[in-house]
Amino acid sequence: MAPHFSFRPATPDDAVAVAALYARIGTDLPGAPQSAGEFERLVQTGNAFLVAEREGQVGGAVRHRQEDGIGWLDLLVSGETGAGPALIGAVERWAQDGGLRLLRMAVLDDSRLAECFARWGYLPIARGKGTWAGREQPLLTLEKRLALLTVREQRREDAAAIGELTRQDPWVFEQGARPGVFVAADGDRVVGTIAVRDAGVGLARIDEPALRDDYRGRSLELWMIERCVVYAETHGFHTAEMPATAALLALRRPLEDRFWQLEGQVFLRRFRSPQPEQEERW
């Protein structure tokens, strides 16, 4: 069984642990910080790193960035079996969550790394030259096209996945798209669903988002809720309501940033009424 890692942005407090990982491989990874001070300076000057943790110990790190709508990763280091692939997956999720479709990295053209990364879907797209280990060397750019992560209207073919997520009979969804029912999709794979229903007298009732466990904690819930809000606001409702479940209470602050208010056992969001047209005066 593959080890389970958690991931988080690196901070200056990780400098000693992460620098120790890079020090083990020495100059085999040009540009890698070889001291805690170097790593701390990188983090403090805008370099974004993710670290993989298991049982409170840092097991790996990777740097990532976005340039002109394309994600890049480099300085991948692993101190535990499985940490490297796990970090690549974490960067791919970061890219998807930011709406990026492409993720790239550069490796030495004559190394075996291209074969290794091909197993994870990274294919060569360009050759060039760059500074590596203090001298100019041929480099190979690898690229992976990521599946589009989106929230869209339900389709007939989504029925089985919706039934599994909600524990409802999928038959009703097999009859066609139902108004106010949406799914979160990772490419062609349905990973979540949510619905908004007419509760009468101008009130729209939004269900708690249903998500696969491995997609929780990526702000997809907020994205799904906002899709329902747009639907409610554009279909004549004056207020939207959601149950104040434990999962949604954990999102209270970002929900309040989006104009939701906790009132008793529910979250409420009130929409602005259209302003009456002013009479023209001459």
Summarize the structure in short.
This protein has 282 residues and is of the alpha+beta class.
Task: List the keywords.
282 residues; alpha+beta; Aminopeptidase; 2 domains; 8-stranded mixed β-sheet; 7-stranded mixed β-sheet; 9 helices; 28% helix; elongated; disordered C terminus
Please give a structural write-up.
Strands 8, 9, 10, 11, 12, 13, 14 and 15 form an eight-stranded mixed β-sheet that branches. It is elongated and about 70 Å long. The protein has two domains: 6-145, Aminopeptidase; 149-270, Aminopeptidase (3-Layer(aba) Sandwich), CATH 3.40.630.30. It has 282 residues and is of the alpha+beta class. Helix 1 packs across helix 2 (36-44). Helix content is 28%, strand content 35%. The protein has nine helices and 15 strands.
List the helices and strands and how they pair.
Layout: E1 6-9, H1 15-25, H2 36-44, E2 48-54, E3 57-67, E4 70-78, H3 83-97, E5 102-108, H4 113-118, E6 123-132, E7 135-145, E8 149-153, H5 159-166, H6 171-174, E9 181-186, E10 189-198, E11 203-206, E12 210-211, H7 220-234, E13 239-243, H8 246-249, H9 252-257, E14 261-263, E15 266-270
Parallel strand pairs: 4-5, 11-13
Antiparallel strand pairs: 1-2, 2-3, 3-4, 5-7, 6-7, 8-9, 9-10, 10-11, 10-12, 13-15, 14-15
Helix pairs in contact: 1-2
